Amino acid sequence: MPSMAQGGFRNFTGSQKPGSKLSNENQNRQTDFSARRQKILQQRKSLPIASVEKRLVEEVRKHDILIIVGETGSGKTTQIPQFLFDAGFCHDGKVIGITQPRRVAAVTVAKRVSEECGVELGQKVGYSIRFDDATSSSTRIKYMTDGLLLREALLDPFLSKYCVIIVDEAHERTVHTDVLMGLLKNVQHARSNIVSDGQRSNSENTNVKSGMSLEKENGGQRGSFLRKHNNRKYAPLKLIIMSASLDAQVFSEYFGGAKAVHVQGRQFPVDIFYTRHSVADYLDASLITIFQIHLGEGPGDILVFLTGQEEIESIERLINERLKQLPESSQKLLTVSIFAALPSEQQMRVFAPAPSGFRKVILATNIAETSVTIPGIKYVVDPGFVKARTYDPSKGMESLVVVPTSKSQALQRSGRAGREGAGKCFRLYPESEFEKLEDSTKPEIKRCNLSNVILQLKALGVDDILGFDFIEKPSREAIIKSLEQLILLGALTDNGELSDPVGIQMAQLPLDPIYSKALILASQFNCLEEMLITVAMLSVESIFYAPRDKLEEARTAMKCFSSPEGDHLTLINVYRASNEFLEKRSMGMGNAKGEKALRKWCKENFINSRSLKHARDIHKQILGNVEQMGLQIASCGDDMLPYCRCLAASFFLNAAVKQPEGTYRALASGQVVQIHPSSVLFQQRPECIIFNELVQTNNKYIRNITRINYLWLTELAPQYFAVQN
DNA sequence: GAGCACTGC
C-alpha cells in the first residue's frame, strides 16, 4: 500500500491557499511537497502505459467499446482514468467510473490516484464502497466495487451520471462483473439510441419506482428501457473492459468483435519448473521443495499456495520439526501464514521483513493470489490445487471441494515471483498435466445460487431471464430453480413478474432474498427489531471463534449467550450483549475507543470481532432500508413465540424433522442431514426445526437452527405444505 | 461430536 506513509500530505494540500504567508515549517513542507510531486510525475512517466497515452485516448474516442489487455504492473488502473479526464471526457460534469471486484482495491487505488493528481481524496478523485463513501459532487474519477455500481443501476437505470465506465479485472468473472457487463451492454445500446426533447437534466436520477416497474410489453429488454425513458436525453456511454490476456478473446466476442488493445506490463521473468512425474502427496512434495529452495537457492522469500487452514497448520508444524534436524547455520527459515479467517493482526505478520539472515516462507491460501500482495517473494511453490465452492441447484446444497487450479490461476500464482525481480516457480506436477488444465476457472455465475441475481435483474426491468445476454449462461435448471424459489417467496408473481410491494421491497434490500422476505414478514409478526439483528448476524461469517487450544474455554463463553430455542436467539443474545457493553463502556468515550473496547470484549467472549463489526454495519444499513420503506419496526419483547413463528414462516423451505436414528429429513428436498456440532441444539435434537445453511463436508450438515412446532408450517405456509402432505 | 477458499451489496 504505497500511500500509507504520505497521509500528512493530503491534509496539507487540502488546506493550502495560494498566496498565503508561509511559516518556515510550511516552506519546508512546500519544498518536500514539490519534491514529492516531481517524484510522482517521474513515476507516472516511467510506467509502460505512459508512452501510449495519446493512442489510448484516440482509441476510446473512436470506439464505444474497447477491451484493454494489460499485464500486471502496466499502471492501467491508475493511469487510464487520468488520461481520459485530461483529454476532456468529463467536460460536461460527467463521471468516469472504474469498478473493482474488491473493496480494498477500490480504496487503495483511489488514494494513489488522488495523490498523483495532488487533490484531496473525495474531491476530484474518490471511491465508493458499501459502508464507506468518499465521493462528493465534484468527484469525476470514481473507483467503486462492481456490486455497488449494480446497486446504483437500480436507482438510475441509465447510469446517467457516467460518461465512461471501466470494468477492471473482468477476467476474474465474479457474479457481479458478469451481470454488470450484460447490463452495461443494454444501457449503452439504449443510451446511444435515445433521441429526445432534452428538457430534463442528465444528472437527475430516475426514481426507484420507475426503475423497478419496467415491464415487458411487446419488445425485448432494450425496448422497455426506451419506452420508459423516451423523453430523456443521454450522452452515449463509453465502455472499457480491462482484462488479463488469456481471456481477452471472450470479451471481444461478447461485445460483437470489439477492438482489443494490448498494454505492456512490467513483470520480471519467472522460470517455471515442473516435476518429472505426478506426485502422490503434494504436501510432502511441497515440504521437500521448500527445503530444496532454502538449502540450494539464493536469497529471497518463498510463497507456498495451499488449500486451507488445516493444510497450512500441518505443514507449518512439519517445517519446524524438520528444521530442528538441520545444522544451526541452515535453520534461519521463518514460517508465517495467511488465510482469510486469520485475525487481521496476525495477517499483518506476513508483511514484516524477515530478520536479517533469515528467509521467510509464507504459507497462504489463494488470498495471496489477488487479494494481498506480499513484497520480497522470489520463489513460488504451487501444488496446483484450490478449494472451491460448488453449488448443486437440485439439492440446494453447497459444498467445498479441493480441485485442480486453472491455467490462468497457475499463471497468476507464478507471476507472484516476478514482482520485484526475476523469480522461479515450482509447479508440483508434470508439464503434461498443465496442458490438461482448464484455461480459466469456471465463472462464479455457473456455480452459485442465482436467486439474488435474478431478483436484481427483474428489478432492473429484465423480464426474460432465460434470454438475458449473459457472457456465459448459467444452466437452464439453475435459472428455473431460482425463479421457482422467488415465486415461493412471493417476490415474483406466477407470471414471473416482480410483485408489488413485496418483490420491489425485497430487491431494495442488500440481502439474500430469503432474509429480505424474513424482514417483510417480521413487520407483520411485530418482531422486526429481532429479525433485523438475526439477518445481520446470519449474513456474516461465523460469529463464534474457537481456537483449537482453548476449545473448552470457548464453549463455556458461548453458553452464556445460548438460548434453548436455538441458534437464532443465541445470535440475538450476542448482539444485544455487545450493545449493552458498548452503552455501558462508551459513556464519554470516543468512537475509536469504543471499538477498541469492543474488540477486547469479543476476545474475552471468543467472538470474532471482524464478523461482529460487519454484522453491526449491516444492521445499521438495513435498519435504514426498512425505515425508508415504512415498515413497522416493533419488538416482541420477552415473548419469543411470535419471533419463532416468524422464523418458521420465513424459512419454511428449510424445515426438517427428526428421524428415529436422530438424523433429520429436510422436508423440501427429502435429503437426510445432520445438525452441525457447533449448533446449540446439537444435543437436544428437537422434533422439528428450521435451518439456514446446508453444507456438504464429511457429512451433510445443517447450521443455524431453531426449534419450531410442525403445525406452524401448515398454518403459515399452506401454499407449500398443503400440497406436500 | 466437526473443522470452513475468496469476494460483494
Automatic annotation (TrEMBL):
UniProt keyword terms in alphabetical order: ATP-binding, Helicase, Hydrolase, mRNA processing, mRNA splicing, Nucleotide-binding, Spliceosome
GO cellular component terms given for this protein: nucleolus; spliceosomal complex
Residue intervals of the Helicase C-terminal domain: 282-461
Reaction catalysis annotation: ATP + H2O = ADP + phosphate + H(+)
Domain of life: Eukaryota
GO molecular function: ATP binding; double-stranded RNA binding; hydrolase activity; RNA helicase activity
Enzyme kind, highest EC tier: hydrolase
Region feature (Disordered): 1-32, 196-225
Polar residues compositional bias, start-end: 12-32, 196-210
The keyword Mitochondrion is assigned to this record: no
Annotated Helicase ATP-binding domain residues: 57-264
GO biological process: mRNA processing; positive regulation of transcription by RNA polymerase I; RNA splicing
Classification via Pfam families: HA2_C (PF21010), Helicase_C (PF00271), OB_NTP_bind (PF07717), WHD_HA2 (PF04408)
EC number annotated for this UniProt entry: 3.6.4.13
Protein name according to UniProt: RNA helicase
Organism: Acacia crassicarpa
Phylogenetic placement of the source organism: Eukaryota, Viridiplantae, Streptophyta, Embryophyta, Tracheophyta
